[in-house]
Amino acid sequence: MNSLDKILGRLQGKSPAVDDENLFVENIMNRLPDKQKQRRIPLWKNLLMSASIAAVLIMVAYINKQDTELVLLNPYYTELAKRHETDFLQFNENSNPQEIYEYYMRRKPQQLSYLQLKNKIHEKF
Amino acid sequence: MNTINVDIIERCKSGDKEAFRLVVKAYQRMLFSLSLKMLCNEEDAKDVVQDSFLKIWQSIDSFNCSNNFTTWVYTITARLCIDRLRAQKKQMSGFDDEALFHSFVSDDNVEHEIENRQWVAIVRALVGALPEKQRLLFTLCRLEGLSSAEVEPILGMNASQIKSTLYVASKNIREQLKKMGYE
C-alpha cells in the first residue's frame, strides 16, 4: 500500500469540527434574516390590477375636477361663495362664474373636493 | 451523505427558523469539513459555512424537493469556497507546518483524533499544490468520501471526466509525497 492510500485510510471516518458547535449554530441562527413569504402574482393579474388602479385614479381625478367646477359654476354656490368667502368679495352678482372659478384656481392651487368646498361654505353660512 | 426530511425543507421554505436550525445542526460539520479542507484556514472556513447557511436560507424557496438536498448544499459551499480562494488569490503550494504532517504520518495510533491545525497541514501537504478543480474534486471524492455520482452535479462534470481528473490529481499528490520522502 502506498503512502497516499495509507494516509487516506487513516483519515477515513474522521472530520474536522469547530470547537463549540452549539455556539457556532447559534451564531449562524442569529445571522438569519426573517423571511417574509411573498406570494407570486401572475403577470396578467399584476397588469390587470395596475390597469384597474390607474383607471380608478383617473376617474377620481376627473370627478374631483368636475365637482369643483360644478360647485363653482353652480349659481347657488357661487352666490354663497360671493357672500361668505373673503377671497371672493371682489365679485358681485354680475360676475362671470368662469372668472370666479379661474380666480379660485389661481388663489388655491390645491383643489378642494366637492365635499370640502361645500362644507366650507356651509361653515360660513 | 446526510439526509434531511422533505417536511423540514417545506417548513424552511415557509420561514420556520426552528426547522432551519435542524438543517444547520445536520450539515454544519459536513460543510465546515469541506471548507477547512478547501481553504486551509479555520476562520475562513467558519465564515464560508455561515455564508453558506445564509445563502441556503435565502434561496431555499427555489430548491426543488425532487433533487438531492445534500448535493445542493455542497454545491453552494463549494462555490463559495472557490470564490473565496479566487478573491484571496492564495498560493497554496508549500506549507509552514510540515512537522505536523510528519508527526501525523509517523504516528502509528490510528485512533487519535486529528486537530484542525493538523488537518490543515495534511490537506496542504496533499492538495495544496493542485489546481482548483483537481483540488475540489479530490477533496470531495477522497477526503469527504462522496461518490462520483454525487460529485457530478456539484462540479458539472461527467463520470469519465471525474475519473480522469481524479487520476491526474492522485498522480500529482503521489509525486508530491515522493518529493517529501514518502514512497
Could you list some keywords that capture this structure?
A: 125 residues, 6 helices, 66% helix, B: 183 residues, mainly alpha, 9 helices, 72% helix
Structural class of chain A: mainly alpha
Low-confidence region ranges of chain B:
none
Number of strands of chain B: 0
Number of strands of chain A: 0
What value does the average pLDDT of chain B take? 88
Query: Tell me, what's the shape of chain B?
Result: globular
Order of helices and strands of chain A: HHHHHH
- Radius of gyration of chain A using CA atoms only: 36 Å
SSE string of chain B: HHHHHHHHH
Describe the structure.
Chain A has 125 residues and is mainly α. Chain A contains 6 helices and no strands. Chain A has helices at 3-11, 21-31, 43-73, 75-84, 97-107, 114-124. Chain B is 72% helix and 0% strand. Chain B has 9 helices and no strands. Chain B has helices spanning 6-13, 17-39, 42-59, 69-88, 98-106, 116-127, 132-143, 148-155, 159-179. The mean pLDDT of chain B is 88. The interface between A and B is medium-sized, with 26 and 40 residues.
Give the helix/strand layout.
The complex is a heterodimer of chains A (125) and B (183).
Chain A: H1 3-11, H2 21-31, H3 43-73, H4 75-84, H5 97-107, H6 114-124
Chain B: H1 6-13, H2 17-39, H3 42-59, H4 69-88, H5 98-106, H6 116-127, H7 132-143, H8 148-155, H9 159-179
In short:
Chain A has 125 residues and is mainly α. Chain A is built from 6 helices and no strands.
